[in-house]
Amino acid sequence: MTSGPRLYAMVYAALLFLLGATFVIARVDLGAFNTVAALAIAWLKMGLVVAYFMHLRDADRLDAMLFASGFVMLLFVLLALTLGDYFGRVWLAG
Amino acid sequence: MSDARAHYLNAGHSMRSWLLTKDHKRIALLYLASVTALFFVGGSAAVMFRLQLLTPHGHLVLPETYNKLFTLHGIVMVFFFLVPAVPTVLGNFLIPLMIGAKDLAFPRINLLSWYLFIAGAALALGATLYGGVDTGWTFYTPYSSVFSNTYVVATVMGIFVAGFSSILTGLNFIVTIHKMRAPGLRWFRLPLFVWAIYATSFMFVLATPVLAMALLLVGLERVLHLGIFNPALGGDPLLFQHFFWFYSHPAVYIMVLPAMGVISELIPCFSRRRLFGYEFVVMATFGIAFLGFLVWGHHMFVSGQSAFAGLVFSFLSFVVAVPSAIKVFNWTATLYKGRIRFHTPMLYALGFIGLFTIGGLTGLFLATLGVDVHVHDTYFVIAHFHYIMVGGSVMAYLGGIHYWWPKISGKMYPDALGRWAAVLIFVGFNLTFFPQFIVGYLGMPRRFYMYPPEFQVYNVFSTAGASILALGYLLPLGYLLWSFWYGPDAGDNPWGASGLEWKTSSPPPVRNFETKPVVDEEPYDYEGGRYG
Ligand SMILES: [Cu+2]
After folding, report:
1. According to the CATH classification, is domain B22-503 in 1.20.210.10?
2. pTM of the full predicted structure?
């Protein structure tokens, strides 16, 4: 398996490629799918950074648990409940 | 003379040996001095606006000054006293001792945390000296981000910097508790104080970044005129409230969980009984830590949040009361048929149970949508959260300080005087805040400079109570400081308490234990005959 500087360079190249993809897709009109595509690419980038640069790929249980709890809190709880308010304004207007 | 023996207090007397120390016990004392000073800063602000509120149309301070005083009180007490107090003082001192370790996992980061805390406090207090802030401790937008002509940016940056102190402290505790427990100290043998600090550390790590980000955005909107919260630029003011309370509701549990951890140590020791339902208290701790993240919208019932979200947050807020109630019942059950001894720490613990219960139950009133419409932003809310934060957290903090003081200082304070102070604080507290339930129910809004004359009698009670409370807080400051130098030697385990921290000498040696401890007993083994 590749490791060391070579691996980091490859991940970095992949990130730059995804950055380019973000840029290109933003220029194409896909309607609502622009957001979906942008978010999907953002997730990919995050995954790469977390797995390789932050070494979560070879982390122990404690690191994984910390990461998972942060993920659940920020993405699920903060996003879902806040959006629950914004969408709820339409569902139960008045 | 105990000074014949080497311990952490006499291991160097220079300024440098304190300010560059990596010893968790010395860092705990640095925090103790800092948060005590900040507590009296926040308290003085409260004394001033309580005097202003003695009369309906008082002119002791200008209206602008009044706004800055209650803002200063809130910011200092919440971010620079209540949030850090128990974890950084008692947590720092006790976590390594309780798990039989030499120090925290990252001693240098621990010292860095204290410097970050001091830098944050200096920024926030510096802004106060320049002229202060008038937004309230909640920094609601767009007032804070557009309209207020006060030192908002410096203050939020102070809280931002202090936030990193919280995050690093939390990480330090998590790693320490995972990696450095003594042989035999299995997870379910950990003292409940350690469990409480462990759960709180997760909340530090998960919630604080959201507050830091929200305050940073307020600063950016003020300086760069970005449209994030300002509706005139396409922003949404409610978004700030979501971010702010995503931290600040869990912050209530950051203040209360460690306090509950202290109480779970005091009650078994002074009842001479094993804590009732140890596993349930552990589960309830995590139940509170998790559910505490799901209820923030109860601060936004009347601020334009959707009725749907209001419904969900109201329901979840009722749910979080369940694990808190489990703990209250378990402490009470521990007292049952115990051999109760009314030393100073125990008086604080009993006070905590009563006052926390009142605070918690009135929280259910406020979690009820229909009731909240009437009492929101009144003194009812003020009374409710002071019962939780002062009646709960501050009582537990003082109880903990009195309980572990013989370990920290090696000296004993006059217990009779301590009991008098505890009673004084209990009476002063209730006299201050109980009338606020009534005057709030009658409709007196919070944060107002003037009020209708018919509310005066309640405000007179409140101000009188605040004076008693102030005296009550000055007493321990006096006799604890006195005992530090002149008190009689306390011995290693004056309360006959279980727990590793009592098995080393007082004050502990620099490396905490002369020989590496091994744990072969269940927690709180007060009925097994080992502790008399
Ligand atoms: Cu809340």
Report:
1. yes
2. 0.92
